[in-house]
Design a protein that fits this description.
By secondary structure, this protein is of the alpha/beta class. It is built from 28 helices and 30 strands. It has a seven-stranded mixed β-sheet, with helices on both faces. A seven-stranded parallel β-sheet has the order 4-5-3-6-7-2-8, sandwiched between helices. Strands 25, 26, 27, 28, 29 and 30 form a six-stranded antiparallel β-sheet that branches. Helix 9 packs parallel to helix 19, helix 11 crosses helix 12 and helix 24 crosses helix 27. The radius of gyration is 26 Å and the shape is globular.
Length: 787
């Protein structure tokens, strides 16, 4: 069945057709072949041909040529464009050369992926491809799930080790003497899905890679980095910032593509009223569950991508219930897939989807970067995933064999989603975003300097590798008695492991274990940073299609006790926030207004939670909570306006707070269009008279210690960002404000006060004085790479 026919069926129900706001038809594309470089071993080319690939695509051949020349390279082409083969062919050829060396281990390669699932899947692919090469390529996965009895063999004999940055940070680099023969022979480091290394996580990975380069140099190796990325803006710039090396960019996709029909879908308004009487739109979760049900009944192999673990569980439960009414056997062919599952649960789901036993899956982005799913017919994206890069990555999971595919973006009741389904040009006519990361963030850099010193004492020669912030940080680490200078080097002084100072995922703290109260069974884990909002007392927790209520949260022991229940609602936490300015780095006049960027301290506290009806989102009630406050030092962008500007905008004292609050909410909702973040990565505060600025002020800050680069990106794109914010509010069809424009799902004040028209007038007068935007400053590494 063609993708257009599948969409027609989905749109054939009552009022369904009116929910499609736009349909984009992307035509098929012919592929362009080339030949492999003549330095590739004939045995490797024969193995590739045996796998059914007669000739490479042009971008694969170019990448292989650069790799053999010793150039680090980033391949930034579309999903299913053969990026894996582009780096595997030169790697396998080099490993085959190394196998003929006298010691039998003349070359090794390291593969890094952001998820265990992807590493495991890639290992299976490598073994299949390399089978004709005999014992020359010994591939093995080395991660937290690897049995201890296998680890010594991998260290001693594997030539192609597949792992993740977490294991590299905690397991391999601190134990580098045991890996010395592997590191001494290291020729290539493959960094797969490198566009996911953004924000705080990307900044940590950047420093882990610098530590790896430093230890390789200690053993006499200088590996070439081969990076693979989904289509991204300026991939070479991001790759240089990630690795600290000059990187060649290959972004001309020469692979063929089947037809893609991409529909934008807006759920209808309901008769229900939300907070402050605002109209409530049907949830993207309920709408996506309906679509998954219909696709499964049609026999269409589908994945629904949803932003939250809870959402994945809810969609699978609703779809299973509705399918059971049609055919009980169909209900068993739909499941949920998310992080937090036990490893054996994830592997079973991956195999069931790969074999076709499962027809439909509701998945978080854990699957977006997971197994290489082939043969999918449709992808439903429940809510904009935060970036255009992720949107195309998810949409590209369908149609992998070159056949036509359907993708449907279902809008949430959110300013950005609503803007996008009514402004398709923002998705289809604009390039994807630049990847944002900041390796010089002191909260990121400091623990990695400690880890590096523990691995090998730090010398003055190392400082250039770790960046310009080092000289200022080292005395602070000495004062904190973490490092001690002896002669010409800094040494780690503690007994504990320096690598344990930080969690590179930027989560901090040990995960909270979710335990079934009656049996003591471990259901899964929740990141410590998310525990206050997701497993507080009274929260609804979903796992494997079962619903639990949190009976208690013990923050000291990091345990949440739950019991199975079936409430007709979900829960959403609410918090309050205050902010103080620590330092203003940059201030730009916008007429009489000011746009600023600098360091701030944010104090927030979860104070209550709402109970919302599952399908409709209707608010059923609010319950108070008693949880401790948390303090965050981070980076922020903020703007102020004067009394004269308020008069010009007809903003009276009575509506000032609501106008500022509404502008804050909408600007947070729109920032993901300009920075690689989503609204849960950032926060905001608006104050009619802030004690540090003595003016009406709106702050938008990074939700991570030390910042993640998002507020800086907002500062440099402020004119475009705030113009889009104003347009999103002004074009919304509601009267007084709704979740599609100025209401926020995480507002600690219950979305009160808000003033929609005041926000539009306020942003109008602010933007009158806005200068042209200034591009972000290049780092020294980027300047060196460009030179």
């Amino acid at each position: 069945m063609s993708p257009g026919a599948v969409l027609d069926r989905l749109a054939s129900g009552p009022s369904r057709a009116s929910r499609i706001t736009h349909t984009q038809h992307l035509p098929p594309r012919e592929g362009r072949h080339a030949v492999w470089p003549d330095r590739i071993r004939a045995e490797v080319i024969a193995a590739v041909r045996a796998a059914g690939i007669e000739h490479p695509w042009a971008h694969q051949a170019r990448a292989a040529e650069h790799a053999l020349d010793g150039d680090s390279v980033v391949v930034a082409t579309g999903t299913a464009s053969g990026k894996s083969l582009a780096y595997l062919v030169p790697v396998l050829s080099t490993l085959l050369d190394g196998a003929e060396a006298p010691n039998g281990r003349g070359a090794t390669a390291l593969y890094l992926s952001p998820t265990k699932a992807l590493a495991a899947d890639q290992c299976r692919s490598v073994k299949r491809l390399a089978r004709p090469l005999g014992n020359a390529v010994r591939a093995a996965v080395y991660d937290g799930d690897t049995p201890f009895e296998e680890r010594e063999w991998i260290r001693q004999y594997a030539t192609y080790v597949l792992t993740n940055p977490d294991m590299l940070h905690r397991g391999i680099l601190p134990s580098h003497p045991r890996w010395s023969s592997f590191l001494r022979a290291l020729r290539y480091v493959v960094v797969d899905e490198c566009h996911t290394y953004r924000g705080v996580f990307g900044s940590h990975v950047a420093q882990v890679l610098r530590r790896l380069r430093r230890l390789c140099a200690r053993y006499g190796a200088s590996p070439v980095f081969l990076l693979a990325s989904a289509t991204a803006a300026e991939p070479a710039v991001a790759a240089r910032r990630l690795t600290g090396l000059p990187v060649v960019e290959i972004a001309d996709d020469a692979s063929p593509r089947g037809e893609l029909v991409f529909a934008l879908w807006e759920p209808p308004l309901t008769e229900l009223q939300g907070e402050r009487g605002a109209p409530v739109r049907r949830t993207a979760t309920a709408e996506a569950a309906d679509l998954l049900t219909d696709l499964t009944v049609q026999g269409v192999r589908s994945v629904v991508f949803v932003r939250s673990r809870r959402g994945a569980e809810i969609i699978s439960v609703i779809a299973q219930e509705r399918l059971a009414e049609v055919d009980r056997s169909l209900a068993r062919r739909v499941a949920a897939y998310r992080g937090g599952y036990l490893p054996e649960e994830r592997r079973a789901l991956e195999q069931a989807l790969d074999s076709g036993e499962l027809l439909g899956l509701a998945a978080t982005t854990a699957l977006e970067l997971g197994i290489d799913v082939s043969g999918l017919d449709a992808v439903v994206i429940a809510g904009y995933p935060g970036t255009r890069a992720s949107l195309w990555q998810q949409a590209g999971r369908a149609g992998r064999a070159g056949q036509g595919a359907l993708a449907v973006l279902v809008a949430r009741d959110d300013p950005l989603d609503t803007f996008l389904v009514h402004h398709p040009e923002a998705l289809f006519d604009r390039p994807v975003e630049s990847t944002v990361l900041d390796p010089d963030n002191p909260y990121v850099l400091a623990p990695h300097l400690c880890a590096a010193a523990a691995e090998l004492p730090l010398t003055d020669e190392d400082l250039d590798l770790f960046g310009p912030a080092c000289p200022k940080l080292l005395p602070q680490l000495e004062a904190a008695k973490l490092l001690r200078r002896r002669a010409t080097a800094w040494h780690w002084t503690r007994r504990e492991r320096a690598a344990d100072l930080t969690d590179i995922r930027g989560q901090g703290g040990r995960p909270v274990q979710v335990v079934e109260a009656g049996t003591g069974r471990l259901l899964g884990t929740v990141d410590e940073g998310a525990a206050h909002t997701t497993v507080h007392e009274g929260a609804v927790h979903l796992h494997q299609g079962r619903t639990y209520l949190v009976r208690s949260l013990d923050l000291e022991d990091s345990v949440a006790l739950v019991e199975e229940a079936n409430p007709p609602y979900t829960t959403v936490a609410r918090d309050t926030t205050s902010l103080s300015v620590l330092d203003t780095d940059t201030e730009v006049p916008w007429g009489d207004a000011r746009l600023c960027y600098g360091s701030v301290e944010v104090t927030h506290q979860v104070v209550s939670f709402l109970r919302r009806r599952v399908v409709t989102g209707e608010v059923l009630g609010e319950t108070k909570l008693d949880l401790p406050p948390r303090t965050l030092r981070t980076r922020a962008v903020w703007w102020t306006v004067t009394e004269d500007q308020l008069d010009a905008a007809r903003i009276t004292p009575e509506i000032l707070g609501g106008a500022l609050h509404a502008a804050e909410h909408a600007s947070i909702g729109m920032l993901p269009l300009f920075a690689t973040c989503d609204r849960w990565d950032i926060g905001g505060v608006s104050v009619p008279l802030h004690p540090d600025t003595l003016l009406p002020t709106v702050f938008v800050y990074d939700g991570h210690p030390g910042g993640a680069g998002f507020a800086e990106r907002a500062f440099h794109t402020a004119r475009s960002w705030l113009t889009a914010t104003r347009e999103a509010i002004a074009s919304c069809e509601c009267d007084a404000g709704c979740p599609s424009c100025i209401q926020s799902p995480k507002c600690g004040n219950g979305n009160d006060p808000l003033h929609k028209r005041g926000a539009v007038r306020l942003l109008t007068v602010l933007l009158r004085g806005a200068p042209q935007e200034t591009p972000p400053q290049e780092t020294p590494e980027e300047k060196a790479g460009r030179a």
